[in-house]
Predict the 3D structure of the following.
Amino acid sequence: MKPSERVWSVQLASLEDQDLVEGLLESASWQHRHLDWAHPGDLLGQAPYLLALDEGLPAACLAAPPDPEGVSWLRLFAVASGYELEAVWQDMWTRAAPAAAEAGAKLAAVLCLARWLPGLLAGSGFEQTDSVVFLEWAGQAPAERAGLEGLRPMVQADLEAVAELDHQAFDPIWRHSHTALELALRQASYATCLVRQGRMVAYQISTGSAFGGHLARLAVDPAWQGQGVAQDVVSDVLRHFATNRSPRVTVNTQASNQRSLRLYERLGFGRTEQVFPVFEKAL
């Protein structure tokens, strides 16, 4: 059934709506969550984070607050059963897009983890611009290189420098904000910085689980790229997880990032069948 055919209202989701959102996410027939460190509850109160109610019950939600600056990633979209998916998407996105622009976003982006999502995006004027590919390592840990100095654990006080390095290393759409990096550090099982000549030149943040390790973020100062810095940092990550009996390590990167792909494949990573398209639309 279409939203227009029911008693449908849409509001900005607030902290008071957390139970409604969580209830919807537990039973939603369609659900998209962005791959990041933020829980849906962490975004409540930010714009746009819309909640649709049908006679007081949660029917759909959509969250796309700008982060990093100027970019609204679709971080959450969920629809309860009994609704026409395309009609709900069109209604919610039509409301969210101007709110995202008003919040400072110039670009909307979506990492499509669900097969039903690209069709909705294409119907709203989004175009595929890239893909994210996943790779997996399950080999022998690299030997430790003699003379590797300046690698140390990342701490809270490093976040300002880490955010600045991240800003320099990535195009706007792929940057992480200070807030996102702080969340990442809180959830990390292994995070390190590489300092050379008194300045941070690289960092990595990895997570761990019963399934192994995941290299969630790697950044190298552009002035230091091509000098083996990334290989040193990633090799240390592989040794760390191998030593801690987690011989399987995964990583993901853009299909267009040939430098990163060559690095990971050189270190023994192999591509998996997980490939997810990225769609964008100017706001």
